[in-house]
Amino acid sequence: MHIRKVAVMNIVLALSLILVAAQCAPAPTPEKEVVEVVKTVEVVVEKEVIVEKEVVVIETVEVVVEKEVIVEKEVEVIKTVEVEVEKEAAPAEAPDTLVVLTASTPPALDVDLWGGKSWERVLANVYDSVLDYEMVSEAEVGIPTGTDVAGVAKINGIGDDGIVGSFFESWEISEDGATVTFHVREGLKSYWGNQATADDWIWRVERAFALADVGDFQLRVIGITGPEDVKKIDDMTVEMNMPKGANPVFFKGLCVPVLVGVDVDVMREDGWLTEDDPWGLEAMKHNDFGFGAYHTVEFVPGSHLSLEANPYYWKPLQFQKVFYREVPESSVRLALLMAGEAHLSDELTLVQKASTIGGSGEARYVGMPENSTWFVIYTNREWGAFQADECYQAMGYAVPYEEVQRTAFFNFGRIASEVAAPMFGETVNSEDWPYKYDLDKAKELWEAGSCPASFEMAWDASYPEQEDVAILIKTEFNKIGVDVVLDRTPTAAFAAKRGDFTLESFIEESAAFVADAGYAAWLNWHKDSFGNHMQYYNDETSQMIDDSMTMPSGPERNELLFEIQRELINRGGRIGMLWTGWHVVANKHLEGFYWYSVSLVKWRDLYWVE
């Protein structure tokens, strides 16, 4: 009788201690573990024993031993009890490799050949722009406070106010503001240990003008008309001259991640520059040659880029490696982030991003409710349904703006009422925007312009929110008797059609690299700009834009910019729906998120908090 009671009490005590331990286990990030708690063997001999009902209380755990009869038979009973207990996870250690997810790897790494969002993201981290922005609070720039944002670029300064050194460490400005002398940063070295020099900038400028693509555009828009405007003074000094006069966005324009220093010495030493290929087009397909924080050591298109930290970088870096991985499905990207197997991505649907607000698994939301990214409908002014002004303007009244914000953007962003981001300050005309949802007005204009009974609307298939908006617009036009033929186009085909101007209308996000309405007008509507996808060609407007880029900041320039924006609102071919905001999903341990004017994360800024 006493032996039986002791055996039962031993089992009860073991179970109780385990259960109490489980109740007291610390809460953070528990892991489930199966523990074998008891394994006993009892042999019962011939005898009837009555065990009275008894309650044993140990540490608030009650075990009731019921009345039982032991039969006259020798048996062997083996009892194994498995209990799930919560075990405190070890503190999350900083990984050596930062894993960044993308919908697609970039087509190439060439600093002069435009390659889309993924291209921008990589370039901003393997090259450093020659100048950079000072980081300040949102309040200092006059924008709403973000979530877990450490600082924002001071984009509202005039001249070099709010600009800090990068490739160029310091500078002097001439009295008339048209000539600036720059000094290359001492100790700035590439991945190969080569000191940056004036030649690395001179060669990059010559290449830009020779290839006449994005680098050429960026230099011209800040007042540099050709390679003769950039002169080497000595190995560490460069003089840049603006022959048309001081340019109001000159310093901001040098913060763009295509105006970078290139280690031309290593390109020459490795035999990349030849008589047949003097500008290293083959070299820059899958290689980078910058002075930035990271360097690409492996590029497998359609799969990944492996990058290593520049061992000579002039700032400390938390992550020694970056794995930039293509994961085409956004749901898989989100799952990897939530599981902690990846650390960063801004390529998720808005509903997926919203699901991480406040934290979801290992992932959390980081972002700002407003930025310079514009969600836009483009209409082609050269051919198709939107050649007449009335047809383009009808689009502005057919868009259900509030429904777009609510349904497709889950109330993110800010409804647009201008053609340049309101955060660009006093250069932006927010007074003359006429468009609002008004189907009667849309129908009246469509009929007045003798517009056709149907038109096509395309979008990049990688972005489901764009499809949501296209369906909304189709529904509204159907109400006024117009059929919208929807074209869900794969990414590569969409980029090709947009570049060939073969899309009648399409939906896309757009952003100006430089915080200025004049720059935005040059980028999107100037007759010579690569960004004029509406084919809006107007000599008078282009001349006004040119004039605005050689005037000092102030009321006179702002008045001209307002006139330009009125023309673009009425005839420019773009209908802005939302300023979308900046939204990223990151690991919950990752900090150091700053908003740059290009809305890209700089991996050099990131650090791990346990």
Précis, in short:
It contains 18 helices and 28 strands.
Q: How many domains, in number, for the residues?
A: 3
* Distance linking N and C termini: 55 Å
Strand order of the largest sheet: 20-24-19-23-21-22
Would you tell me the overall average pLDDT?
Answer: 87
Topology record:
Layout: H1 2-24, E1 31-43, E2 54-58, E3 61-65, E4 76-87, E5 97-102, H2 116-126, E6 131-133, E7 135-136, H3 138-141, E8 151-153, E9 163-165, E10 168-173, E11 179-184, H4 198-211, H5 214-221, E12 230-234, E13 237-241, H6 250-253, H7 264-269, H8 283-286, E14 294-300, E15 304-309, E16 321-326, H9 330-339, E17 344-345, H10 350-354, E18 363-368, E19 373-379, H11 389-398, H12 401-408, E20 414-415, H13 439-448, E21 454-460, H14 464-479, E22 483-489, H15 491-499, E23 505-511, H16 517-525, H17 539-548, H18 555-571, E24 574-579, E25 582-587, E26 590-591, E27 594-595, E28 607-608
3D architecture notes:
This protein is an alpha+beta fold and 610 residues long. It folds into 3 domains: 2-87, no CATH class; 97-369 and 582-608, D-Maltodextrin-Binding Protein, domain 2; 373-579, Dipeptide-binding Protein, Domain 3 (Dipeptide-binding Protein, domain 3). The protein has a 6-stranded mixed β-sheet with strand order 20-24-19-23-21-22, with helices on both faces.
